[in-house]
Amino acid sequence: MQFLLLTYYDEAEVAALSETDLESQYAAYRVYTKTLIDAGVFQSGNALHDTASARSVRVRDGDVMATDGPFAETKEQLGGYYLIECASMAEAERWAAAMPAAFAGTVEIRPVLDY
Fold this sequence. Notes:
Order of helices and strands: EHHEEEEHHE
Largest sheet: 4 strands, antiparallel
Strand order of the largest sheet: 2-5-1-6
Number of strands: 6
């Protein structure tokens, strides 16, 4: 079964990190990604640019509305994702708990529908 691990963090906190601390975070994600790959659960994953670069699109009554950034005001923003293959939600939770984002932000786990 596939699970999407969505990483959320406070962009302002990340922007305040020193270059050394930021590189330490990147290194932690490289180790985590390699661990997922070595375990055979990694399917794909990417980091996202910050919300200032985002656009939200809605269509209402045939009118297309495009606005800057995400629509919802939240303390934490979506920063990236991993798509993993696991036998159960419990296994996905173990992988989420090991992700660097879990220590400073939030990791949301969403089972992927299999059509």
